[in-house]
Amino acid sequence: MTMADSTPAASPWVVLKFGGTSVSSVANWKNIAAVVRDRLAEGLRPVIVHSALSGITDRLEQLLAVSLDSHNTLGNEAQAVMNQIEQRHRDLARDLGVTPSQDLEEQFKRLRQIAAGIALVGEVSERLRARVMAQGELMATRLGAAFLASQGLDVQWVDARTVLKAEQRRNANLRSSYLSATCNYEPDLELQRRWSTQGTVFISQGFIASDEQGDTVLLGRGGSDTSGSYFAAKLGARRLEIWTDVPGMFSANPRSVPTARLLRALEYDEAQEIASSGAKVLHPRCIMPVKQYGIPLYVYATQTPKLEGTVITTHGGNVAAQVKAVTIKKNITLVSMETVGMWHSVGFLADAFQVFKDHGLSIDLVSTSETSVTVSLDPAANTLDKSTLDALMVDLGKLCRVEVIGPCAAVSLVGRNIRAILHRLGDALELFEEQKIYLVTQAANDLNITFVIDEGQGDRLVSRLHDIAIQKMTADRVLGPTWEELYGPKDKAAIDLKQWWHDRRNDLISLGREHSAAFVYDRATLTAKAKALRALPGIEGVFYALKANWHPDILKLFAEQGLGFECVSRAEVEHVMKTLPKLDRQKILFTPNFAPRAEYEWGVQQGIWVTLDNLHPLKAWPEVFKGRDVFIRIDTGYGRGHHDKVRTAGVHSKFGVPLFEMDELERLVKASGARVVGLHAHTGSGVFTVDNWKSVGDTLTALTQRFKDVRIVDLGGGLGVPERLGQQGVQLSEFGETLAALKAAHPQLTLWIEPGRYLVAEAGVLLAQVTQLKGKGEVNYVGVATGMNSLIRPALYGAHHEIVNLTRLDDLATEVFNVVGPICESGDQLGNDRLLPPTQEGDVLLIATAGAYGRAMSSTYNLREPAIEVLI
Ligand code: LLP
């Protein structure tokens, strides 16, 4: 065989293979149509290969069985199965808005005739079995072709049996040549020429082919992947895309290990190994043909077409040794053979293996010692009933002592150069202290190590091995996000600190329905946050920056917790005074920026703390501050924070007196007769490194050498809160240690902080009812009752807020949406590319972490009132 005549990179062909689930719903078919259009837009020629509707292959098998059981005429049961098969297709046709074609009607009829024939004859040949089983794909592709044509695509339906030809295999029995055939896949220039019509989309069947006599043959269960691969090789395709119901290959089965990571890139051999050792995403046989011609293989999920998926190529991912997957195969039977005579004896293994061959059993793993040999029999490759095993035992018993052990599980660690990482697996291997290991093998290709243990222990072991060998590794080019991160808010909540709103779900849904848009704040969380800050060591004053949220009830709650208030305008100060008439004036800190003279005059008369953050007030109106205590805001020279717009120090920011103006400041202070009792700095908002407050503390305390009256150092606010899943907020314990150390070094100084976001962000959520849904091009939109008029942060800073569908919190999130509001600007988006469960009008969405700078920055833009506020 020669290499492909054209290199994949230059080829116009792309083969798209869709599995059973992928072709069984309208939503998926819409995605398929979008993918096809995308590929056409890329200038490619798509060839679709797809499976039967999900469950139909099983139904066909059932049809064969019950037809055989019928006597002479098709019995009721067989009729019922046949009706179900037909109805499934009619239902999908209706949902897709297409009428079953004449060909499809013909197929239904023929299938009934064949079933009746089987009933009459009372037997079914392998040849006929293959013909019946092939109907699933033949029927489904008729519907697929009709739907794509209804979408305006130029579609041509092709019978795969005219393209894929089974190979004659030596030693193949009749059964396997009809039901588990392999095909020739050399580049087929004639096919490429025949299909060269521009713009046409070809659609054909997976799973089926034909043999030399023109009989229908099958490629074995899961054979559709292999069909895709054969088509790709024959066409010399640019790539093969396998679309299934999981978005790629994972480092473990995500359904049992939710922390399984997406494997972004693999080599063919690794993918083959993972597929062969138990993962169900790809059929192991499909890799060889694309590997041989260097055709990249992509794995994607049809229901979430935007997720990145896995790409399998020659160079794959990392060259470094790395465990990439932990897989499990169950229902393994071990046969252990023991004999003292084996030592140095010639031909024992040959004799023993001959017995397995005679019984038609294929051996998977082997391990030998001087006195024993243990082999495993994989159920996927063997039909192991009791009588087969008994017969095997009898014959082996003539050679040695035999023991059958099972059911077992084979747990494999898979990855390149696995031998090189054995030493790192120390922790993982300790697990086996409690487990009896029956067999350990290390594959000759250095791609896997397998442990065979009792089946009951298998799953537990997989998840522990996965924790040790993969989960704690940091994400890289190969290891992508976890399944939990990609899907399912339910699981998210479990790994993240469980958010309060999970427990208040029903109340929130009612509130969302009642008001259609509402900010809801949780008193318990507000209180807990205030208490946590009050408990910080080294800190004597916590001044809440009420610009984040000035709801009067929140101010009252914080006052009860002993917090002071940081205000940036006269109106904010007056709001605090009005809300809390009994509040000690020394608990109000006024930090205006570029405010007019009058505001300072007013401020200093109120008996509140006033901060100057420019030289101008001291230069231009020194008399205002004569004999007064003031704070000075210092620009420490560097800004920090989640976005440029919220970094409030450094040359590009308008805040604070820069360090190079300290001499002038000292002079002006003296000249004005003011007393500097406090120094302040706030470098920005949404800061995660505790280092920030340490260096602010160092800078400010050093300045107390110049300003001898300073008693208070205010380190500012800015404590970041996690906005994305898995992100860590500022660690309060670490923050506390920094503050305590600073205080210990300067016991004469009083330390203050003035956070806003930290106290309120997580305590608040924005609820918004779904108004409309639409799909436009590739993008699906969920419209909700409020948008940037309530929460402008995504539009202004590209800020991320988690969004969940509260109404359907328990459903798997499988669709990607842009969540948008009703405001007349394209920027009116609350979240892009968000995974949500299938969502409907009237559902209540929850936009998380909206307690800070949400309502506070809202507007009546478009004369739409922002969401109302409720405390619970
Ligand atoms: N102190 C001063 C002097 C401030 O300017 C600010 C916030 C704070 C304290 C409180 O910062 P916090 O702890 O909340 O991070 N609208 C932006 C945030 C702007 C913050 C402005 N200054 C946002 O939504 O992210």
UniProtKB/TrEMBL annotation:
<comment type="similarity">
    <text>Belongs to the Orn/Lys/Arg decarboxylase class-II family.</text>
</comment>
<keyword id="KW-0456">Lyase</keyword>
<dbReference type="InterPro" id="IPR000183">
    <property type="entry name" value="Orn/DAP/Arg_de-COase"/>
</dbReference>
<dbReference type="GO" id="GO:0008836">
    <property type="term" value="F:diaminopimelate decarboxylase activity"/>
</dbReference>
<dbReference type="GO" id="GO:0005524">
    <property type="term" value="F:ATP binding"/>
</dbReference>
<dbReference type="Pfam" id="PF00696">
    <property type="entry name" value="AA_kinase"/>
</dbReference>
<dbReference type="GO" id="GO:0009088">
    <property type="term" value="P:threonine biosynthetic process"/>
</dbReference>
<protein>
    <recommendedName>
        <fullName>aspartate kinase</fullName>
        <ecNumber>2.7.2.4</ecNumber>
    </recommendedName>
</protein>
<keyword id="KW-0067">ATP-binding</keyword>
<dbReference type="InterPro" id="IPR009006">
    <property type="entry name" value="Ala_racemase/Decarboxylase_C"/>
</dbReference>
<dbReference type="InterPro" id="IPR045865">
    <property type="entry name" value="ACT-like_dom_sf"/>
</dbReference>
<feature type="active site" description="Proton donor">
    <location>
        <position position="824"/>
    </location>
</feature>
<dbReference type="GO" id="GO:0009089">
    <property type="term" value="P:lysine biosynthetic process via diaminopimelate"/>
</dbReference>
<dbReference type="InterPro" id="IPR011246">
    <property type="entry name" value="DAP_dec_asp_kin"/>
</dbReference>
<comment type="pathway">
    <text>Amino-acid biosynthesis; L-methionine biosynthesis via de novo pathway; L-homoserine from L-aspartate: step 1/3.</text>
</comment>
<dbReference type="InterPro" id="IPR002986">
    <property type="entry name" value="DAP_deCOOHase_LysA"/>
</dbReference>
<keyword id="KW-0028">Amino-acid biosynthesis</keyword>
<dbReference type="InterPro" id="IPR018042">
    <property type="entry name" value="Aspartate_kinase_CS"/>
</dbReference>
<dbReference type="InterPro" id="IPR036393">
    <property type="entry name" value="AceGlu_kinase-like_sf"/>
</dbReference>
<feature type="domain" description="ACT">
    <location>
        <begin position="337"/>
        <end position="407"/>
    </location>
</feature>
<dbReference type="GO" id="GO:0004072">
    <property type="term" value="F:aspartate kinase activity"/>
</dbReference>
<feature type="modified residue" description="N6-(pyridoxal phosphate)lysine">
    <location>
        <position position="547"/>
    </location>
</feature>
<dbReference type="InterPro" id="IPR022643">
    <property type="entry name" value="De-COase2_C"/>
</dbReference>
<dbReference type="InterPro" id="IPR001048">
    <property type="entry name" value="Asp/Glu/Uridylate_kinase"/>
</dbReference>
<comment type="pathway">
    <text>Amino-acid biosynthesis; L-threonine biosynthesis; L-threonine from L-aspartate: step 1/5.</text>
</comment>
<dbReference type="Pfam" id="PF00278">
    <property type="entry name" value="Orn_DAP_Arg_deC"/>
</dbReference>
<keyword id="KW-0210">Decarboxylase</keyword>
<dbReference type="InterPro" id="IPR001341">
    <property type="entry name" value="Asp_kinase"/>
</dbReference>
<keyword id="KW-0547">Nucleotide-binding</keyword>
<dbReference type="Pfam" id="PF02784">
    <property type="entry name" value="Orn_Arg_deC_N"/>
</dbReference>
<keyword id="KW-0808">Transferase</keyword>
<keyword id="KW-0418">Kinase</keyword>
<dbReference type="InterPro" id="IPR002912">
    <property type="entry name" value="ACT_dom"/>
</dbReference>
<dbReference type="InterPro" id="IPR029066">
    <property type="entry name" value="PLP-binding_barrel"/>
</dbReference>
<keyword id="KW-0663">Pyridoxal phosphate</keyword>
<dbReference type="InterPro" id="IPR022644">
    <property type="entry name" value="De-COase2_N"/>
</dbReference>
